[in-house]
Amino acid sequence: MKRSLPIILLLLLLLSCGIALNAKEPSASGPFLIKPYIQLGSAKNALSILFAVGSQTSGWELEYKNSDDSAYMKAPLEQRTLNGNKDIKLICAQLNSLSPGSDFNYKVSQNGKQLFSASAQARPKEDTDISFGVLGDCGMGSKGEELITLQLANKHPAMVLIPGDIVYPCGRLRDYLRNFFPFFNGKKELMGKSLFVACPGNHDIAMAGMKDVRNLDESPDGMAYFSLWQQPLNGPITKIGNTNSPELKGSKQNIEEFVLAAAGNYPVMANFSYDYGNSHFLILDGNKYVNWQDQSLRKWVDDDLGATKSKWKFVLMHQPGFSSDWHHQEEQQMRLLADIFEKNKVDIVFSGHSHSYQRSCPLQFKLARARLKDQDRETKAGFVQGSFKFDRNFDGQTNKKAQGVIYIVSGAGGAKLSLPLLEEDPTRWQPFTRKFICKQHSFSFCRASSENLILEQIGQDGTLLDQIIIEK
Q1: Is 360 within 8 Å of 406 (Cβ atoms)?
Q2: Would you call 265 helix, strand, or coil by DSSP?
C-alpha cells in the first residue's frame, strides 16, 4: 500500500490538471501549425492577424484590402519564437488601413503562392449596432466544444468573447495546438473570419487544480495566453514583478524566453479595455493574486468605466462574484468591484469558472464594512460579506428596465459540466439566481442596438435555452 501511494498521488495530480494519460503530442499538416486568426491588436482602430508556422519561416506575405478597394496592401510582418518550442514561429501582421465598419479581404502567401484567404469585418464605427458571442471554459478538446463551435459558426458572429479558462489543462502552447485551435480555427476557420477576444482564467495563468501553470520549468511553453493573443495594452499593471500580476517561476533562461515570446504583453495584457461599436468592454483578471481592494486598481476600473460614452457597458472576468454553483463557492473576490459597476451603470458582467449558464436578477451589492473576526476569517477563505438589493420586477420580457447589474455565468463552452442537480432543483440556488442551466453545453449570443440589448443562451443542439431583453 505504501509503495502505491506515490503513484496514486501522481495520477491525482495529472487528473487535477485534466491531463489525458494517453494523450498524443499535437501535430499539424499543411503550411500552418496555426491557421491565420484575427485579434484586436494594440492600435485603437486596427486589427491584427496572426498565424504560426514550423520550419518554413521565409517568404511570407499578408495582403489585405477593404471590400470597395481595388488593390491589395501589404501588411508589415513581425516574426517571433514561442517559448517552450523554438521550432514554432508566430507571425503577426497589423492591419492599419481598414475602413471602420466595412468588410475586408485578406490573403496569406509564401514565395508568391497563395495559401489562405478569408473575409472579415473591420472594427465598427461608434454608435453602431453590434452582435457577439460569449463562451468560457471551452478549450477541452471535447465533443461539447465541437458542437458549440458549429452552433457558434451558424450565428456568423463578428466577435467572440472568452471569459477565461481558454484552454485546458494548463494554458500551454501544446494545449492550444491540441484542444483549442483545431476546434475554433479548424474546418470552419471561425477565428479567421471572426474577431476573438479573451480574458485569462486560472487554468491560463494561475492554478490548474494542484498545478501552478506559472512554473516555466515544469511547463516551458506555459502561459501561452501572453504570446498567442494580441490585445490592447492599456491595463494598469505594466511592470514585471508587480504583486497584482501572475508571478513568473522557473529558471532565469525559461523566464527570459517567456518574456521575449510575450513581446511586451506580459503583464499588462491581463487587464484591458476597448470600444466596439456602441459598446464598451472591460476585461479583468479575477485570479486570487490580484488585490481588487488596491485603490490604484479600483481607480483605474472606475476611471475606465466612467470615461466611456458608449451606450452599453460590459465587463468580462473569469471568476464570478455571484454564483449558485457549489464548486468555487468561496471565490467571491470579484464582488469587491460591484459598487464600481453599479456606480457606472454596467449592464452585464460576464464570467465563467462554473461550467454552466447562470443568470442573476439585476442586483446591487453593498460590502459589509464591519471588521468582525468571523468575517475576517471568511474573507481570508474567499468569502465576501455584504447585503443585497434585488430587482425582482425585471423579467426581460414585459419588464425590460433593469435596476442594477445583471451577472451572467457563461462557462459551458466545452469543459465537463456542473452537477445536473443544480439545474433540476431551484431551491438550491442563491436568492439572486434566476436561471441555471448545466445539462448541456451552451454559449451566450448578444445583440446590442440603439433600442435594446437582447441576450440569448444557445444550446449545443441549437435550442434557445434562455432569452432576456434589456432596455435603458
Answers
A1: yes
A2: coil
Separation between Cα atoms, residue 138 and residue 109, nearest integer Å: 31
End-to-end CA, the chain: 64
pLDDT of the residue at 12 = 43
DSSP 268: G
Q: Give 296's DSSP letter.
A: H
Q: What is the mean pLDDT of the chain?
A: 92
Q: Determine whether domain 126-470 maps to CATH 3.60.21.10.
A: yes
Q: Are 279 and 287 in contact (CB under 8 A)?
A: no
State the Cα–Cα distance between residues 191 and 51, nearest whole angstrom: 11
How many residues would you count in the chain? Answer: 472
Greatest CA span in the chain, whole angstroms?
74
No. of H helices and E strands in the chain?
11, 25
Please write the tens of the pLDDT for every residue from 370-405. Answer: 554 555 555 666 889 999 999 999 999 999 999 999
- What's the CATH fold of domain 28-123? Immunoglobulin-like (2.60.40)
CA distances from 405 to 50, 342, 461 (A): 35, 6, 29
Edge-to-edge strand list for the sheet holding 442-448: 77-82, 85-95, 47-53, 34-39, 195-199, 159-163, 130-134, 442-448, 453-459, 464-470
Fill in the amino acid letter for 377: R
Q: Where do the CATH 2.60.40.380 domains begin and end in the chain? A: 28-123
Q: CA 54 to CA 190: how far, in whole Å?
A: 22
Query: Grid coordinates in use for 435?
Result: 436561471
Extract the residue ranges of the chain whose pLDDT is less than 50.
1-28, 372
Q: What would the grid cell of residue 228 be? A: 498567442
* Residue 264: how many other CB atoms lie within 10 Å: 12
132: three-class secondary structure by DSSP: strand
Start and end residues for every CATH 3.60.21.10 domain found in the chain: 126-470
Single pTM value for the model: 0.93
Contact 436, 422 (CB under 8 A): yes
Q: Can you tell me the distance from the alpha carbon of 122 to that of 162, in angstroms, rounded to the nearest whole number?
A: 20
Q: Which is nearest to 138 in space by CA: 41, 231, 18, 269?
A: 18
Three-state DSSP class for residue 301: helix
